[in-house]
Amino acid sequence: MEGLAIRASRPSILCSLHLGGDSQRQPLSDGYLRLPVSSNAAANINLVASSVSFHPVSAINVSAQASLTADVPALSDNIVWHESSICRCDRQQLLQQKGCVIWITGLSTSGKSTVACALSKALFERGKLTYTLDGDNVRHGLNRDLTFKAEDRTENIRRIGEVAKLFANVGVICIASLISPYRRDRDACRSLLPEGDFVEVFMDVPLSVCESRDPKGLYRLARAGKIKGFTGIDDPYEAPLNCEVRRAEHTGHDVSCSPRQMAENIISYLLDKGYLEG
């Protein structure tokens, strides 16, 4: 070992060091005190607590303290947007498609994930690049720290909305499949994107139909009071008011369609709006 470096906050600390009986009192000019260390350094070096002097808080000159902090810029002052040399239109031209977000919302077991998979596969077969953000999948990683309380659900949707925006900016067709029960949260995600780039798909399936499926037994547990805050049981679901695509099932005014048919309906919308072109 060649030496010992001790870090101290300057200029408030002065140290007296006893090295082989000789005492020196020196200010820490550069914030470090460097000491020669011999093989028996631990035995020879003693930092004497009684010789360490601190400036009392009451003695600090307020104007001097202010001058020290005034030179430190606020964190937000150092955060600026860095423009890419490749713009969104360049990426979309490369992919021969336009980036957008397909936001599939509805009650649990309404078929969101099934339709998302069918849509992704159908677009892949057409040579289009997609990525699916599934509500359950995202909670395994990005949102694993969030609960199902109202405030955490809002944060869950906010994060997914921001990620979906990044995909759309790359030119990818991002499919977000999650309950997203609150209208204000979905509208907040819509506001992140240029007009028209947020395509809301409402899986309008009655609660009774969703409960009759219940492959995970979640509705049964919610009815028994073992799951609190379950959407549709003791927590509300706010249906979209003006969604772009809607799937109605067993409602008496529309016929049921398969996931593949529903995917084709969404693709027809994308074709009409020019999203499957460069």
Automatic annotation (TrEMBL):
This is Adenylyl-sulfate kinase. Residues 98-246 form the APS kinase domain. NCBIfam families: apsK, PRK03846.1. It holds the Pfam family APS_kinase. GO terms for biological process: hydrogen sulfide biosynthetic process; sulfate assimilation. The keyword Disulfide bond does not apply. GO terms for molecular function: adenylylsulfate kinase activity; ATP binding. CDD domains: APSK. It catalyses: adenosine 5'-phosphosulfate + ATP = 3'-phosphoadenylyl sulfate + ADP + H(+). InterPro entries: APS (IPR002891), APS_kinase_dom (IPR059117), P-loop_NTPase (IPR027417). Its EC number is 2.7.1.25. The keyword Kinase applies. Catalyzes the synthesis of activated sulfate.
